[in-house]
Design goal:
Rossmann fold; 6-stranded parallel β-sheet; alpha/beta; 27% strand; 513 residues; 17 helices; 2 domains
Length: 513
């Protein structure tokens, strides 16, 4: 076993864990990823209907194994700054605030350790990913994801630091120094991530860090352009989008604007669009982007963990008005689909009761207390579509034409026929579905984009031969290559097989218990 911790969120724990999984799988090792507690709005449904974080799904793909609930037994899905839905072994348990969550810690620790035990019994190696930073000493007493897990399982720990942020040596040293002596004894060494520059200028710092801590730097991982992977939250969206492929398309490019509301979820849905040659994806997160919503060839309203709240944000920022003024294509996915409806009744997620939707699709939404978790299969544009569903909102589509007056602005302004679209509907230039992952189906994606281009009046022809699944595999292979080329893999194997080296020095004063 091995725990990959980090000095901060987005230090690179997820990609390092995936890279180690791919490297071990190549060696013929049966390996599984594990993250005891994950806070993320990007999730996925396993084959047996459990909801887990997307990062663990990508890590399972790197390991070449089927993702299961035990790989992420506790998933926290924030609905506001203070409240989160607690998902345990793939099923919603409760909605709690930060203080209420403490009452669940003991029982959740037992769940996490039991999941880890089952994985250890089924696989040769389990590579664990920490959460946030192990040096969050205000949370140490109830920790179940970092040093609390490592100490309970007797697991060696490697700490990843992000040199691109600056201050990496202080972050690595300080992370170690703030821990209790018993925790420090499990911190076996460091990895430096996202390095770009002259290695010879870095070496003196590596030597000094080793002398100060008694722990080696096992590797310096390079900044990899064009590399991306499923992330846990929207904090890293800006840097990630810059890393998505930018290939030249045939004819004109197709401009896609994605609305980034405060509680955006499953924004991984648009990765397949961004990977398509000639498609340019940009995120709009403020009133300043209203013009971009009006001018884009396609606007995507993605999922939301707080549909009613994010809909109100759309109106407050003026982005809702920009959407209603559009005459070009709009695609709503899950929460975004719900926002396009005429009305939303929500006594579950927000408790707001009935509120008006944007009215661009002839549908009503009612939130159910039981969450829908499914892996549907369907067909659209003559192509098979495999997808997954995660939602409380149930959408009912009217079986007749829209009733909007012909002089009303918006892409569905004129009376138009309601057409089926996956599990949802299409009216004119507006599409809606609750299905996530549909755009990862290559044939469907290209046919949909061709239709969008025709409606938008763009001379855009989707490229043939682009396989999103193959692209994902290439990126996971690149992570495996990164570990093999830039990490002391012999030392990693020793940690995995033998545990933390004995006699590692403790740095005073350590954190108070």
């Amino acid at each position: 076993m091995l725990l990959v911790a980090g000095t901060t969120s987005d230090a690179g724990k997820s990609v390092v864990t995936a890279g180690i999984c791919r490297w071990l799988a190549r060696r013929g090792v049966r390996v599984a990823p594990f993250k005891a507690q994950n806070m993320s709005l990007n999730s996925y449904v396993t084959a047996d209907g459990a909801e887990i974080g997307r990062a663990q799904v990508a890590q399972a793909q790197a390991a070449g194994v089927e993702p299961v609930a035990d790989m992420n037994p506790i998933l926290l899905k924030p609905g506001s700054d203070r409240r989160s839905q607690v998902v345990v072994l793939g099923r919603p348990l409760a909605e709690v605030d930060a203080m209420e969550y403490g009452a669940y810690k003991d029982s959740l620790r037992a769940v996490a350790l039991k999941s880890l035990e089952r994985l250890r019994a089924s696989y040769d190696v389990v590579v664990c990913e920490g959460a946030g930073s192990p040096a969050e000493i205000n949370l140490r007493r109830g920790d179940i994801a970092n040093m609390g897990l490592a100490r309970a399982a007797g697991m060696p720990v490697v700490v990843v630091g992000d040199i691109d942020r600056g201050g990496v040596f202080a972050s690595l040293y300080g992370t170690l120094a703030l821990l209790e002596a018993e925790d420090q004894a499990l911190i076996s060494g460091f990895l430096i991530n996202k390095f770009r520059g002259a290695r010879e200028l870095l070496d003196p710092g590596l030597e000094t860090l080793h002398k100060l801590t008694g722990r080696p730097v096992y590797g310096v991982l390079p900044w990899l352009d064009g590399l991306w992977m499923d992330l846990e939250d929207s904090l890293a969206l800006d840097s990630r989008r810059g890393a998505l492929p930018e290939n030249a398309g045939t004819g004109q490019s197709l401009r896609v604007a994605v609305v980034r509301y405060p509680r955006i979820s499953n924004f991984t849905d648009v990765d397949a669009l961004a990977a398509e040659p000639g498609v340019v994806v940009r995120f709009v997160s403020s009133a300043a982007g209203a013009g971009e919503l009006r001018e884009a060839d396609l606007v995507v309203l993605p999922g939301s963990r707080a549909t009613v709240s994010d809909l109100e944000w759309l109106r407050r920022t003026g982005l809702a008005a920009a959407l209603l003024e559009r005459r070009g294509p709009i695609l709503g996915i899950c929460g975004g689909y719900q926002m396009l409806a005429r009305s939303i009744r929500d006594d579950v997620e927000s408790g707001a009761g009935t509120v008006d939707g944007l009215g661009l699709l002839p549908a009503t939404v009612e939130f159910a207390r039981e969450k829908t978790l499914a892996r549907p299969v369907g067909e659209a544009y003559g192509h098979r579509v495999d997808a997954y569903e995660i939602h409380h909102g149930l959408v009912t589509v009217d079986g007749h034409q829209t009733s909007q007056p012909a002089d009303q602005a918006g892409p569905a302004a004129a009376v138009a026929q309601v057409e089926p679209f996956l599990d949802g509907c299409r009216v004119g230039a507006v599409w809606g579905t609750t299905w996530h992952g549909a755009l990862e189906n290559d044939g469907f994606r290209r046919a949909f984009l061709a239709d969008v281009a025709a409606v938008a009046g763009r001379d855009f022809v989707p490229a043939s031969g682009v396989s999103f699944a193959a692209l994902r595999e290439e990126h996971l292979d690149a992570l495996g290559d990164m570990i093999e080329r830039h990490v002391d893999t012999g030392a990693l194997l020793s940690l995995i097989e033998d545990g933390a080296p004995p006699g590692l020095p403790a740095l005073p004063p350590g954190a108070a218990p």
